[in-house]
Specification:
Number of helices of chain A: 4
Radius of gyration of chain A: 20 Å
Oligomer: heterodimer
Strand content of chain B: 5-15%
Radius of gyration of chain B: 21 Å
Strand content of chain A: 15-25%
Helix content of chain B: 40-55%
Distance between the termini of chain A: 52 Å
Strand order of the largest sheet of chain B: 2-3-4-5
Order of helices and strands of chain B: EHEHEHHHHEEH
């Protein structure tokens, strides 16, 4: 079974930790758990890059937080964001973006991009027609 | 420069062929909550330093959630369920599978199950407002605040145990939890394959 491994115990850290000189990337760091993680990491001295759709005014004033605007709801945008992020210098990469679906099925905008750019990878099915 | 040759194939005269392009769009929850991680971890993996840690937030290890998944309807194309139905459970399964898959490939990666923390994520379900305030008030009563939770998770950013043991999953209080028993190594790869198969069917702007 995955997850918990026998004998693994995580030592509790009661005193504040330092993340000085650490580079942290939080994808989905403008709201909720991601936002709090980004702020706490910045307070602990880390240099934090937040990816999200919009940064609050409070967060934009944080000296250790930089912002990369991006919408992770499309595959193409995810690849574009990944191309811009400084992974080579990254110590912690955290993924927190998430939603819960409402009562109707919605889809990402990847499909609509096809119509505009005609660039598509698809599955080809060859069917004989007699 | 190598020349590129094209061979023209002529089908038998008795047969005519039509080409059917089967394309899909990614269901929005799957796109945001899981496929974004699948795509970005794959992009990051060759560029990350060996010492880097990757953390995935979801609800891994939640008891019984796997029973609510539908691997054969990975992208909710045959049916759809709102809220915490199978559509969302599928995203949880892919997230947990990502942790196990990349840990098996040597990445220092861990999954986090925050449990119930009061954020805006449930607003689309209860609509916020008066009912939302009551529900989120109850959640706050029995769970840590989002800031307290984040502060408690911060030590795991540097805990040495995560390097020694990859693929750990963590409860709200930072203690390791068991993964879903159903997600053995073969099943993990089935979820990863389902994600790759969906990517191959999605019309993606390059």
């Amino acid at each position: 079974m995955y997850g918990i491994k026998s004998g693994v115990k995580i030592a509790r850290q009661d005193k504040p930790i330092s993340l000085a000189a650490k580079s942290v990337i939080v994808v989905g760091g403008t709201k909720g758990i991601g936002r709090s993680l980004a702020r706490k990491a910045a307070e602990a001295g880390a240099s934090v890059t937040v990816v999200g759709r919009s940064l609050s005014e409070d967060d934009s004033l944080e000296p250790n937080i930089s912002f990369l605007r991006g919408d992770v709801s499309t595959v193409s945008e995810c690849r574009s964001i990944a191309g811009k992020l400084p992974f080579e210098k990254c110590d912690v990469l955290a993924f927190t973006a998430g939603i819960v679906p409402k009562n109707t099925r919605k889809v990402s905008a990847d499909g609509s991009e096809f119509g505009k750019k005609h660039s598509f990878r698809g599955r080809l099915l060859w069917r004989p027609v007699l | 420069m190598a020349a590129c040759s094209v061979t023209k194939l002529t089908p038998p005269s008795s047969l005519r062929f039509i080409v059917i392009f089967v394309r899909s769009s990614v269901e929005l929850d799957m796109a945001v909550s899981a496929m974004s991680r699948h795509v970005m971890i794959a992009e990051a993996a060759p560029r990350l330093p060996k010492t880097a840690r990757v953390f995935v937030w979801g609800f891994p290890g939640s008891k019984g959630y796997y029973d609510g998944t539908k691997l054969d309807d990975f992208n909710s194309e045959k049916s759809f369920k709102d809220g915490f139905g199978f559509t969302h459970m599928n995203t949880i399964a892919l997230n947990e599978a990502l942790v196990h898959h990349w840990a098996a490939n040597g990445m220092t990666i861990a999954g986090f199950n925050p449990g119930l923390i009061s954020t805006g994520i449930r607003d689309p379900l209860h609509g916020g407002g008066c009912m939302g305030s009551i529900i989120e008030g109850l959640v706050k009563l029995f769970n840590p605040s989002v800031d307290a939770y984040a502060k408690a998770m911060l030590p795991l950013f540097v805990a040495p145990e995560l390097v020694q043991t990859k693929g750990l999953l963590f409860h709200q209080d930072g203690s390791p939890i068991e993964g879903s028993p159903a997600l053995d190594s073969a099943t993990v790869e089935q979820w990863i394959d389902a994600a790759d198969s969906l990517l191959a069917r999605v019309p993606i702007a390059q």
